[in-house]
Specification:
By secondary structure, the protein is mainly α. The protein has helices at about 35-45, 55-75, 75-100, 115-120, 125-130, 145-155, 170-185, 195, 200-205, 210-220, 235-250, 255-265, 270, 280-305, 315-325, 330-335, 350-355, 360-375, 380-390, 400-405, 415-435, 470-480, 495-500; strands spanning about 1-5, 10-15, 25, 125, 160, 165, 190, 315, 435-440, 445, 450-455, 455-460, 485-490, 490-495. The strands form 6 sheets. Strands 3-10-9 form a 3-stranded mixed beta sheet, with no helix packed on it. Strands 8-12-11 form a 3-stranded antiparallel beta sheet. Strands 1-2 form a two-stranded antiparallel sheet. β11 and β12 form a beta hairpin. The longest helix has 27 residues, at about 280-305. The protein starts with a strand and ends with a helix. About 45% of the residues are buried. It comes from Streptomyces mangrovi. This is Lantibiotic dehydratase.
Length: about 500
């Protein structure tokens, strides 16, 4: 604040420069330690065409149908946006009418939660519900197209561009036969929930596999006739689907990531089964799932450390709280106490999984997971090891953990924890500054929840501690909603049509 004014005049106060808005926006960012990059990149390679935000196969078809309709009628961008939003409102309303209670195997249709008040009242005024904003079903003018757009372009459903346009793999006839009724509902002024129940077995998000649009998408996802070029995106996606289907066929699977991930990471199934042993992507999946234990451990440990910051706290106090959670022993004794990570035949044992369920305090449990996971650096080989390690020499990678703990063997484990606390805080601040951006209005965006000033820490919110998504859950539900998989009695199975596509 600066005092200004001419001679003999009372000074006026000017608060900040006039060319920019004051303020530092410290809205929380994602990935504060940036340990997720390798796993995310590998998953993008192994599951092209599906993301963590694309659980419904019918949205791929719906957006393709809107692209065909907009192209055929030469719609303007605003008209295409309105048509897409009204169709998505209709899909959400029909899906709610078909299943007022959420299914345990499939997320609700997009927008159902935002439309809940209208849906429970029994009627949805389409012109009000489709308007983007806090009172509508979505905030984006393109509805829920944005999360699906990259996948739809990758699959050839759409062409690249600022609005949905038909791609080379779009089959308009199949889409109209399966979802054409949504366009008729989108033209209605009012959608009465009771009346929509009769449309459920044709237009709900859960029944795509029973209709032409689902068969089209299943063929597109599995690509049974595509040449298996090594490393191509379509070939890799097909191998991942074959791997998932094989595990579903041979193991009890209720949750894709939990149950399939365990089979991919541990045991000898991938190398002894006659089908999985011939799938090139299987080794990469083993390496990625094992590496994700390290990623999850860092995220949980960091979340716990940030949780210890209540008010303005000296960093040494946080370091001491971490140390107090650990046993009074040397690093060498700590490493010797870790469970075995492979059996006599060299197959990985579920050490990291078991440690998470051992009941230890979180910081001790996750430090054990990190140390155990680092032991695999010298045990894994070939494609599995390459996918596990990723880029070499990266801070907080399993190699880094292995080296740090090996060098610290004579030290007390508690002293290593104190040093690690300082390292993690410094890394989080470096990453936040690297991600900081100056906005057009002059404000600075700094993506961090934890702040450090002169050795004192304070936080603006809590950190999340969930695992990085491997997209297996989303791939599974997309395959289920286009007829490749089926969920019954709390277990998944491969359908007869799905088996014809993946075998």
């Amino acid at each position: 604040m600066v005092a200004v004014g001419g001679k003999g005049q009372a000074p006026e106060l000017v608060d900040g420069p006039g060319w920019s808005r004051p303020g530092l926006d410290v809205a929380a960012g994602r990935y504060p330690l940036s340990v997720e990059r390798h796993v995310a990149r590998m998953v993008d390679h192994l599951v092209p065409g599906v993301t963590t935000q694309t659980p419904h196969g019918r949205y791929y078809a719906l957006h393709g149908l809107i692209a065909a309709q907009a192209d055929g009628e030469d719609l303007t961008v605003p008209a295409a946006q309105t048509l897409l939003r009204r169709a998505e409102v209709a899909l959400a309303a029909v899906s709610f009418a078909h299943h007022p209670q959420a299914l345990d195997w499939l997320p609700r249709a997009h927008g159902v939660d935002a439309l809940a008040r209208r849906l429970h009242s029994g009627a949805v005024t389409t012109s009000e519900a489709e308007v983007p904003g806090k009172d509508g079903y979505v905030g984006n003018s393109w509805g829920f197209w944005a999360p699906y757009a990259g996948s739809e372009v990758a699959l050839g459903i759409l062409g690249a561009g600022p609005m949905p346009v038909p791609g080379p793999r779009l089959e308009t006839a199949a889409l109209r036969a399966g979802l054409g009724g949504l366009l008729e509902l989108a033209a209605e002024d009012t959608l009465n929930v009771d009346d929509l129940a009769s449309f459920g077995d044709r237009l709900c998000v859960c029944v795509g596999g029973e209709h032409p649009d689902g068969a089209w998408l299943a063929n597109l996802m599995c690509e049974p006739g595509a040449p298996a070029e090594a490393g191509s995106r379509s070939a890799t996606r097909r191998q991942t689907i074959q791997l998932l289907a094989r595990v579903v066929s041979t193991h009890p699977v209720r949750y894709f990531t939990r149950d399939i991930g365990h089979v991919l990471a541990f045991g000898d199934f991938l190398t002894t089964d006659p089908v999985t042993s011939g799938i090139d992507a299987a080794g990469a999946w083993r390496g990625v799932v094992l590496r994700n234990y390290s990623v999850g451990a860092w995220r949980r440990l960091w979340s716990w450390l940030v949780e210890q910051v209540d008010g303005l706290v000296p960093i040494e106090d946080v370091a001491d709280r971490f140390a107090a959670e650990l046993p009074d022993m040397t690093v060498d004794a700590f490493l010797s106490s870790l469970p075995a990570t492979q059996n006599t035949a060299g197959a990985p044992l579920p050490a990291e999984h078991d440690l998470r369920w051992a009941g230890d305090p979180l910081p001790l449990a996750e430090l054990r997971v990190l140390a155990t996971n680092a032991r695999r650096v010298d045990e894994l080989t070939g494609r599995v090891r390459d996918a596990f390690l990723g880029q070499r020499g990266v801070e907080l990678s399993p190699e880094w953990v292995q080296r740090r703990l090996d060098e610290a063997r004579p030290m007390k484990l508690r002293d290593v924890a104190r040093r690690l606390t300082y390292d993690l805080v410094a890394r989080s601040q470096r990453i936040a500054l690297a991600k900081a951006r100056r906005r057009t209005d002059g404000t600075l965006w700094l993506p961090t929840r934890l702040h450090e000033r002169g050795g004192l820490l304070y936080r603006t919110s809590q950190e999340g501690r969930g695992d990085v998504g491997l997209r297996l859950d989303q791939l599974g539900t997309v395959l289920a909603t286009c007829g490749v998989l089926h969920y019954h009695d709390q277990h998944w199975s491969v359908t007869s049509s799905g088996r014809a596509l993946v075998d």
